[in-house]
Amino acid sequence: MSVLFLVAIATPIMEIVLDYQLLQKANLNIFKFIKLDFPAVTNPIGPFGAFFAFWFVTIFGKFFSISLLIGSLFLGFFMIFLKKEKHPYTRIISFLIFAFFANIGSFAVNPNNLDAAGIIPWKFYIFLVNIFERTGTGIISLAVVLITLIFIFDLENIQRFFVFIAIKLVNGIKALFIISKKPKKMKIPKPKKAKQAKKKKKPKITDHASKKDKEKKFEKPIIPPQKMTQNKDELSETLKKYAIPESIRFLSSVQPSKEDREEIQENINKISEILIDKLAEFGVNAEVKNVNIGPIITQYEIEPAPGVKVNKFHALSDDLALAIKAKSIRIQAPIPGRGLVGIEIPNITRDTIYLKDVLESKEMSNFKGSIAIGLGKDISGNPIIADLASMPHLLIAGATGTGKSVCINTIINSILFRMKPEDLRFIMIDPKRIELSIYEGIPHLIQEVVTDNEDALRVLQWSVTEMERRYELLQKHKVKNINTYNDQVNELRKKCKTTEEADLIDNAIPYIVIIVDELADLIMTIGKDVERLITRLAQMARAIGIHLILATQRPSTQVLTGIIKANIPSRIAFKVPTKIDSRVILDANGADKLLGNGDSLYSSTGVGGHQRIHGAYIEPSEILDITKYLLTQPKPEQQIKIIKDEDIFQGNFEYDDELFPEAAAAIVSAGSASVSMLQRHFKIGYARAGRLIDMMEQAGIVGPHVGSKSRDVLASEEDLKIYGYIPE
Hints:
Layout: H1 2-9, H2 13-25, H3 30-35, H4 46-60, H5 62-81, H6 88-109, H7 119-153, H8 155-180, H9 183-186, H10 189-218, H11 225-228, H12 237-240, H13 247-250, H14 258-281, E1 286-293, E2 297-304, H15 311-315, H16 317-324, E3 330-332, E4 341-346, H17 355-359, H18 362-365, E5 372-377, E6 383-387, E7 394-397, H19 404-416, E8 424-429, H20 453-477, H21 482-495, H22 499-503, E9 511-516, H23 519-525, H24 528-540, E10 546-552, H25 562-567, E11 570-574, H26 579-586, E12 599-603, E13 611-615, H27 620-631, H28 660-670, H29 675-682, H30 686-699, H31 717-722
Parallel strand pairs: 7-10, 7-11, 8-9, 9-10
Antiparallel strand pairs: 1-2, 2-4, 3-4, 5-6, 5-13, 11-12, 12-13
């Protein structure tokens, strides 16, 4: 059958078309088939061949149709005569792919090639041309043809063929040099050019490889949990050192679609005309001077005619949104430092801004601030990096689901990717118990994530005490800020020759960032006490490295009081339902016109006016991976502990066990407290030893019970002597 079909298709294209037209004019039906009343056709296989040839060529094209039939002949040949042949189907399929792309390649050379025409090949050719253009389609077709030839004729045979040709060429060149005996001709420029060309290509290959090498090198510090349970003596020195995570391993990003960007560019002229015409209807003459296409919005910079009041643009915002059919638009009148009005219109499709792109940007790598945080990108797509140390505190507010919690996570992870625990520590207060609990146990935390409001009050009280202690250190060393103090202390430690001398010098102090995820809940439950502590920290804590990040989803005047706002000039406002809420946060309108999902307005002392920022995004799974890695890292050598007021040694405690003074002295001298220790030391029962430990806790000699760990010893031998527990 394949032979019959081949003969039928071998007829010229024009004859195939004419034969099929004759069959159509004959109006064939069942009676004509029975009587064999067929029109005379030129096809050598008759009417059947004419019918088959037309439809086969129409669907597959003549060239590919012949290839399909030849492939079926080869398949039958292999199945009947060469049953032992290995992988016959691979060669046949390779042959068909070869024929198909050779057909596509012929279109690239000559699009009017009728022999190659066919519905399937032509549609596929058009698909490739729309993506790669005609030249690219030809190159791809040639590459596929060469690859399939390797599978058809066997790679080993092809290698032998090229090796044979290469040997002959080398021998011929050597013979020419020997005959000519001209040393100048020995210096052939072509090989040098080839080497230079290879050198130019190498950087691309090495750059790509270097990225992989970095990823591989970064995997070394991550140790499986089984290895972490080994003895400390068996661990290498590199594992004892904290290794900062790398964003390239833990974070991901997706490039925006070029098609969406092209669609936005096509609509620019149309929207510009609509804006100018609509403004003219209301008597506002203006001209579009510039258009900034951003990842989320497009800003049209408009120059109003002389005599036009700026407030007219604000009044017409709803009318302009109706004309453009936009969800909402924001008017920035005027743009700070320029004589233009900005009209910000949402894009048809939004690009997601990933934290990885912000952290790996040039702006972040060249940033000189002490505590760099990546906030996102501006309306032009430029990364926005801020210094928390210079803010020095940050207020984040917005309605539920607008991106407030994601913003907090991006700030935290921006710090985790750049700073070690000995440089910066966190205190996290999360009354909702779900947002910040994922960071539980990381080395940067001073203590566990605070979820109880009473504990939050205690932590803030400790922060004020720590602030006062640090100011005493600054006064002692006669310096004005934490950076100068740390530099001075580190220099003094370098000059010390012995560890005893170094122990006499004060330690360097890390930054402390206090994050409160829901300020409204603290204000409503505890009230003025929290406001007083936050106000004191906001007023005085900048110089000694304590910084606040306060977040709330209820931006009311009862929560964001005038005292708090006066001491926290840096603010981020996400979308809010009303203009009143916007004015509470920013003291200006605008947050009610935002789009949500990370769209925000940023106000700071170093930023003129209110800067629109599209917040960076980090996946919850990425945060989990980062925290899992940080849990494998060592804790900082300098431990900071928050001690409750009731845990401080009180003295004057009345005890009812004669063994209490000796037990207290033994505990203080040992530096740790446990029931089993007292049992072994004094050879007493568990009940009596436990009772002694409880009395010591009531007296403030030891701290509270913490899991399986030994209790902390809070008193010293001098304290015991002062209160008469042991003789002087």
